[in-house]
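Per your request, structure below.
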């Protein structure tokens, strides 16, 4: 009986190819949007989580400002108090913190061989930076307490940003003041590669003296932590110590960057994107369901005489109903299969364009993380079940109408 029903279903679909295809479009678009969106989001997340492994797990970074989560995280620090020596002292008192260092950050013009670029310049305490930094020096040496007009370049800043590569002992101008390059850092290439590899580092005292920086005020604090402490517990202790020092617990004007923070931020962005795009996919599936229902109602009218014949040869009303519901379910399932294939292609195409545009951007001078679609078995099975269920649901009322047709009246129908 099942084989006979399936034979009748596929015969009917084959006879109405154009109508079947047009009916499939709504389901195809909905499933393609769903698969493309979920797969691409998972691909981006996987690529970022891979890079989280190389994130500085021994650092806690403190930044001034209030982080606000909307569609995209944002923060404001220009109207809020910056960080101070008192904040550093409060952090260094916490058990598990080896050392804390203030960094003043300023964007300044860097001139080399008549080419000028605006880069982020860090003013650091040379001795503390040498102990806190684990990246190491590729060529040359770290800054020393005796250095005044000496500079260290990040790997990409020295090798990729300028037309001619910058080497140790070369002279550069920082805001028209001459500095000697004493070192080039190793390539970071991780989650913060653009920041770590494109920065320029000079002594803090020089920053204070020559670039209008107020002594004891910082735009960033980096704390180096012991490897045997719980990062989450230490993060909570640092936050509490700072809010106690700044007397603003519950209304903090700073936030911490840790691997946990980055992962949480990525998850929140992904959730927002998934919710938005999932809504779009749902609308397409509803439109597809209406299309299937409309087609099945038309099919019942066109096949009224066929229904009468089937009932006359022994098909029960229940069997007729199952046949029509199964037919609409198969339409949904076929749409789901095509949608998965199309969704994979669209999602991968989106990620390829994203990667290409990121690489081509003038703001990015190095190869970013390459993301690819993640099409898991769970996603495939769930998409197929969803498309089949949508088809079944769309066919319930047309199937009931077909099942209720009296055999005698159906045979008389012209």
């Amino acid at each position: 009986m099942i084989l006979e029903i399936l034979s009748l279903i596929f015969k009917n679909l084959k006879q109405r190819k154009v109508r079947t295809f047009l009916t499939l479009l709504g389901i195809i678009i909905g499933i393609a949007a769903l698969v493309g969106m979920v797969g691409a989001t998972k691909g981006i997340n996987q690529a970022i989580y891979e890079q989280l492994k190389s994130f500085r797990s021994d650092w806690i970074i403190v930044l001034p400002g209030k982080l606000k989560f909307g569609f995209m995280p944002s923060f404001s620090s220009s109207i809020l108090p910056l960080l101070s020596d008192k904040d550093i002292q409060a952090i260094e008192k916490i058990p598990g913190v080896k050392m804390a260092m203030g960094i003043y950050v300023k964007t300044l013009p860097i001139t080399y061989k008549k080419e000028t670029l605006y880069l982020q310049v860090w003013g650091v305490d040379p001795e503390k930076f040498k102990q806190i930094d684990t990246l190491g020096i590729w060529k040359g040496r770290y800054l020393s307490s005796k250095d005044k007009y000496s500079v260290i370049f990040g790997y990409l800043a020295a090798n990729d940003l300028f037309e001619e590569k910058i080497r140790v002992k070369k002279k550069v101008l920082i805001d028209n003041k001459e500095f000697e390059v004493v070192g080039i850092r190793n390539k970071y290439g991780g989650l913060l590669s653009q920041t770590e590899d494109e920065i320029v580092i000079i002594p803090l005292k020089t920053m204070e003296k020559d670039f209008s920086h107020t002594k004891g005020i910082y735009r960033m604090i980096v704390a180096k932590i012991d490897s045997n402490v719980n990062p989450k517990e230490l993060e909570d202790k640092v936050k509490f110590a700072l809010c106690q020092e700044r007397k603003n617990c519950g209304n903090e004007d700073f936030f911490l960057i840790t691997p946990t923070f980055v992962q949480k931020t990525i998850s929140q962005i992904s959730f927002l994107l998934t919710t938005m795009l999932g809504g779009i996919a749902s609308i397409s599936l509803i439109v597809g369901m209406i299309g299937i229902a409309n087609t099945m109602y038309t099919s019942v009218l066109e096949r009224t005489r066929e229904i009468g014949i089937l009932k006359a040869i022994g098909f029960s009303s229940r069997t007729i109903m199952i046949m029509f519901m199964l037919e609409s379910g198969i339409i949904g399932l076929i749409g789901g299969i095509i949608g998965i294939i199309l969704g994979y292609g669209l999602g991968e195409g989106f990620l390829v364009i994203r990667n290409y545009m990121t690489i081509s951007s003038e703001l990015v001078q190095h190869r970013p993380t390459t993301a690819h679609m993640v099409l898991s078995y769970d996603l495939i099975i769930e998409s197929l079940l969803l498309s089949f269920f949508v088809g079944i649901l769309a066919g319930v009322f047309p199937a009931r109408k077909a099942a209720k047709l009296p055999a005698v009246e159906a045979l008389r129908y012209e």
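The longest helix spans residues 259-302.

Regards,
D.
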